[in-house]
């Protein structure tokens, strides 16, 4: 690998993020079988994991000989997400002798560590070591190794610091009169906004604040002009951006960005400063060098790209700003925003749509469509030739939803990724319907209308959760998604989750679309079905009452090759009396290695061997169907699952059964035959060992009689 410049001050010598260019095979990795070490190339980095802290020495030691000319650079840079508390040691041989570096204990955040090259002109061998501090399993990754000229870096960074709040000639003057009406009508027309203002004003008079005023207060904390940089962060995600860009969240912290937050509040409150702030955020986005996570997506000679997540968000933000704060822009300001949307944003979205057929079969096509649809409907107001592309975006979305939603209404990626159906699909359909003068119901596909059973499966009876966080999920659902689905299916459990979400927010919907749909959604929800089974998805749930106390049991199965799933086939979730007793930990911020650890079978209610040098686990994704069978009613549940597939190295047989003759009695049995030698015939039974706050929860042993026989 040659020294490859990425700007005038920095270069990469090891692009670990790109599987096609990564030099991992050139690194010598010290054996670590005794502590379960694994190092492997992932799609976006080199990841490592160990099962236990080694008795002595580093948990990971790897080295590579480079023999590169490093003249013109004074620092070696290592980008690493190390396990929290661990120590990174880096040594490098040079023509000036060996240089060494030892990091402080690693934070729960990716770091770029700089090693002074002390005037060296040639870089020889680089050795990276990580010392484990904590006992037990740990994981992390390397992003890249590079070099830096610390003298030139400030000059490179200073090129983005040239804007002020006046944004001449792109914004109208600060004393210009504003009408506080939407310019394009993409979201609401003037009359609809007047109705929303009245409802919002009444709520604020009674409660003092609203979700929209709180969002406005958050947006006021930032200065848009100071956030212009070479790339745009993907919300608060730190996996791919540079360390110097942490906290530079121009796109906000999901699901909408700072431009739209400020512009929406500006219109609702008749606040000129807020409306202009929204316009300033949009111009700041337009002036960023590239709409992507970072240099890894534009590395010379690389085909790596992180799909069009950031681009679709940027298009959505700018289109909303052109609509809601449109009167704040001059003609050149509007033209600039439209050009950036078309070239930098929609161009990338179309590239992804053309190249990657798989995105039609998972969450991603729908994920990208709100930006795509809103961008097209905004542009076609001026450029009539855009209209056929709007129709194509609608057709692509309908096709994708038909694939991603199973025939039984299930969704294999779990309830949080279902947000891409409810929110992203729903928003896109809403924008399209408005652009074509139709009702939302007239453009909604049948596939979305068959998800009542899925809502009954994932709806949580826990007082503090909307949904059961199976797969990569969290207990709190996206309110906009819930609003779309509850309005479409008013007799489903989407209504229960939506009302719980609105009540948690203080009684007012927290988005314009939810506010618009709220009157169509019942105030009270229908009773959940006692028994639901989705045979295509492979999940089952029982919800029963005794003495006015609700018991819910969810049994987790698998559709072959399902994505964003965990090592949890045969696991279960148990809720009782408004609490969770046997839980699924769901996931966390993908920027933390804990997100990978939380997928492990050891973090679910599973039967897992212990005593092996490696971490025992099933295949994931699982290439075969593993689905429960059974029946139930308002009184009883009887279910079983053959959970052995995927455990070929460990189980010849694993059959788990659930017998619940009444809502207050549950007997769980496991029958298994092991592939392992006798000394490894030990089991570990997880019982929801993570709580939402990260602390321990009460042990199921207090409630269940556990009996393990030799068989």
**Shape type:** flat
Overall average pLDDT: 93
In terms of quaternary structure, the protein is single chain
- Helix count from the secondary structure assignment: 17
Note the beta-strand portion. Answer: 15-25%
Distance between the termini: 56 Å
Short summary:
The chain has about 700 residues and is an alpha+beta fold. The chain has helices at about 155-160, 190-205, 210-220, 260-270, 270-285, 310-325, 330-355, 365-380, 385-405, 415, 420-435, 440-445, 450-460, 480-490, 495-505, 510-515, 595, and strands at about 5, 10-15, 30, 40, 45-50, 60-70, 75-80, 85-95, 95-100, 110-115, 120-130, 140-150, 530-535, 540-545, 550-555, 570-575, 580, 605-610, 630, 635-640, 650-660, 665-675, 685.
Provide structural commentary.
With 711 residues, the chain is an alpha+beta fold. It is 28% helix and 20% strand. It has helices spanning 153-158, 190-207, 211-219, 258-269, 272-287, 309-324, 331-355, 364-379, 387-404, 414-417, 419-435, 440-443, 452-458, 479-488, 494-504, 512-517, 594-597; strands spanning 4-5, 10-14, 28-29, 38-41, 46-50, 60-69, 75-81, 87-94, 97-102, 111-116, 122-131, 138-148, 531-534, 539-546, 549-556, 572-576, 579-582, 607-609, 629-632, 637-642, 651-662, 665-674, 683-685. The strands form five sheets. Strands 1, 2, 4, 5, 7, 10 and 12 form a seven-stranded antiparallel sheet that branches. It has a five-stranded antiparallel sheet with strand order 3-6-11-8-9, with no helix packed on it. Strands 13-14-15-16-17 form a five-stranded antiparallel sheet, covered by helices on one side. A hairpin with a 2-residue loop joins strand 8 and strand 9. Helix 6 (309-324) packs antiparallel against helix 7 (331-355), helix 6 packs parallel to helix 8 (364-379) and helix 11 (419-435) packs across helix 14. The longest helix is centred in the middle third of the chain and has 25 residues, at 331-355. The radius of gyration is 27 Å and the shape is flat.
């Amino acid at each position: 690998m040659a020294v490859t410049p990425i700007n005038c001050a920095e270069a990469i010598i090891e692009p670990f993020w790109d599987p096609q260019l990564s030099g991992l095979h050139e690194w010598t990795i010290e054996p670590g079988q005794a502590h379960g070490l694994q190092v492997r190339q992932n799609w976006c980095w080199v990841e490592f994991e160990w099962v236990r802290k080694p008795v002595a020495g580093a948990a990971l030691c790897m080295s590579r000989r480079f023999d590169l000319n490093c003249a013109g650079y004074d620092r070696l840079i290592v980008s690493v997400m190390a396990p929290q508390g661990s120590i990174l040691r880096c040594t490098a041989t040079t023509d000036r002798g060996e240089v060494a570096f030892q990091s402080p204990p690693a934070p729960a955040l990716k770091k770029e560590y700089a090693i002074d090259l002390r005037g060296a002109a040639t870089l020889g061998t680089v050795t990276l070591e990580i010392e484990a501090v904590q006992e037990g399993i740990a994981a992390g990754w390397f992003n890249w190794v590079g070099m830096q000229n610390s003298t030139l870096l400030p000059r490179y960074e200073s090129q983005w610091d040239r804007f002020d709040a006046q944004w001449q000639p792109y914004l109208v003057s600060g004393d210009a009169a504003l009408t506080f009406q939407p310019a394009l009508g993409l979201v609401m027309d003037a009359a609809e906004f007047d109705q929303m203002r009245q409802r919002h004003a009444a709520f604020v008079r009674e409660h003092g604040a609203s979700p929209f005023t709180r969002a406005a207060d958050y947006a006021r904390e930032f200065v848009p002009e100071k956030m212009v940089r070479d790339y745009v962060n993907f919300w608060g995600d730190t996996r791919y951006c540079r360390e110097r860009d942490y906290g530079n969240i121009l796109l906000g912290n999901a699901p909408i960005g700072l431009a739209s937050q400020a512009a929406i509040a500006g219109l609702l409150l008749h606040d000129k400063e807020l409306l202009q702030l929204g316009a300033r955020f949009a111009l700041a986005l337009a002036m960023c060098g590239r709409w992507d996570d970072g240099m890894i997506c534009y590395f010379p000679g690389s085909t790596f790209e992180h799909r069009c997540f950031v681009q679709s968000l940027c298009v959505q933000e700018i289109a909303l700003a052109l609509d809601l704060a449109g009167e704040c822009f001059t003609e050149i300001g509007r033209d600039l925003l439209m050009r950036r949307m078309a070239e930098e944003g929609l161009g990338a979205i179309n590239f992804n749509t053309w190249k990657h057929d798989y995105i039609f079969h998972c969450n991603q096509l729908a994920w990208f469509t709100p930006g795509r649809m809103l961008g097209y409907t905004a542009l076609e107001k001026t450029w009539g030739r855009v209209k056929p592309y709007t129709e194509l975006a609608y057709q692509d979305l309908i096709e994708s939803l038909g694939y991603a939603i199973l025939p039984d209404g299930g969704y294999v990626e779990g309830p949080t990724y279902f947000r891409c159906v409810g929110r992203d699909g729903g928003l896109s359909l809403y924008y399209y319907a408005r652009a074509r003068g139709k009702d939302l119901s007239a453009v909604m596909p049948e596939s979305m209308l068959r998800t009542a059973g899925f809502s009954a499966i994932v709806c949580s009876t826990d007082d503090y959760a909307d949904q059961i966080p199976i797969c990569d999920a969290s207990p709190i659902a996206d309110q906009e998604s819930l609003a779309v689905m509850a309005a479409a299916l008013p007799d489903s459990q989407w209504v229960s989750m939506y009302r719980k979400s609105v009540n948690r927010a203080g009684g007012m919907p927290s988005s314009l679309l939810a506010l618009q749909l709220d009157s169509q959604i019942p105030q009270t929800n229908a009773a959940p079905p006692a028994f639901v089974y989705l045979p295509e998805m492979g999940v089952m749930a029982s919800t029963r009452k005794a003495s006015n106390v609700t018991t819910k049991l969810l049994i987790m199965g698998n559709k072959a090759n399902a994505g964003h799933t965990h090592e949890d086939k045969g696991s279960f979730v148990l809720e009782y009396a408004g609490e969770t007793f046997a839980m699924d930990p769901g996931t966390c911020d993908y920027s933390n290695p804990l997100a990978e650890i939380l997928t492990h079978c050891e973090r679910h209610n599973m039967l897992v061997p212990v005593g092996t040098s490696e971490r025992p686990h099933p295949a994931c994704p699982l290439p075969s169907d593993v689905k429960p069978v059974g029946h139930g009613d308002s009184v009883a549940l009887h279910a079983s699952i053959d959970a052995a597939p995927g455990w070929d190295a460990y189980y010849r047989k694993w059959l788990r059964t659930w017998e619940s003759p009444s809502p207050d009695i549950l007997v769980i049995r496991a029958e298994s035959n092991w592939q392992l030698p006798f000394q490894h015939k030990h089991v570990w039974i997880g019982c929801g060992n993570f709580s939402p706050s990260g602390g321990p929860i009460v042990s199921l042993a207090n409630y269940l009689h556990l009996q393990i026989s030799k068989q």
